[in-house]
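#onboarding

Welcome to the new folks! Below is a worked example of what a typical request in this channel looks like: someone posts a single protein sequence, and someone else replies with the predicted structure as tokens. Don't worry about understanding the tokens yet, we'll cover that in week two.

Example request:
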Amino acid sequence: MKTFSIAIHGGAGTLVKGMMTPELEAQYKSALQSALNEGYKLLDDGKSAVEAVEEAVKLLENSHLFNAGKGSVFTATETHEMDASIMDGKTLNAGGVSLITGIKNPVSLARDVMEKSEHVFLAGDGAMQFAKELDYKLEDASYFYDEFRHKQWLDIKDTDGFQLDHATKKDSKFGTVGAVACDQDGNIAAATSTGGMTNKKWGRVGDSPMIGAGNYANNKTCAISCTGSGEFFIRGVVAYDVACLMEHKGMSVKDASSEVIHKRILEIGGDGGLIAVDTNGNIAMPFNTEGMYRGQKSSDGVDDVSIYG
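Example response:
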């Protein structure tokens, strides 16, 4: 049987060891392990990579610890605007949603865009109308309220500042969540979800819902989910860039991922990381920040959750 595997991330950024309490570190590791285990269990049961990445991301969205779903940061108008995407490497079908509110699991809506519409990317009111037609339950604003997130916003509200959670205070890091997987048939998939930037204005959209920028999957090469400074990941078309290096230069998933994160994105001023998997189940998880919440599990015995470099 082919090696099957899954990798997840909960954001990359300034994660200085010693700045986080042991209790909080344990909470993060537990949440990551739980998402990893559930996604892996689906693969072990013979389910598809698409099902595995959606399930893993849903569990991360359900945790207040990460900037996605329940833990999404506040916008300049004290609301929540969430983005997500998913892609099937076997068919190149993809779905993305942006600027949605009240949806508990944005990644599931992205999958519905992929499978139940003729489109790839829906945003704002239109995406919400689509969700309504599929009878999505809308959560009350209180579901997304987190005291720590609110404090982050209060610190910079009424200013022109905005922050990727990892950008200023060293103990205030959260980020995008994502998963990539290779199933027993050698098919791969990627999913990414985020609450965006604290205090963001004007309907800002980052790389997470953009196919090719923050999320990509192609059975010819690899599946990728990114996290970091979204504006730079969009400019660098990071997820597709890794796949291109593999396809046109014959690089391995490890070498291509490393080239993009440790060289190409740095050259344009970006920081962050990504997780990637190829159709042989090989995983790469490079990042150029102090840390990245991450985990990997595969049928050849790898089972690891890490935070720091």
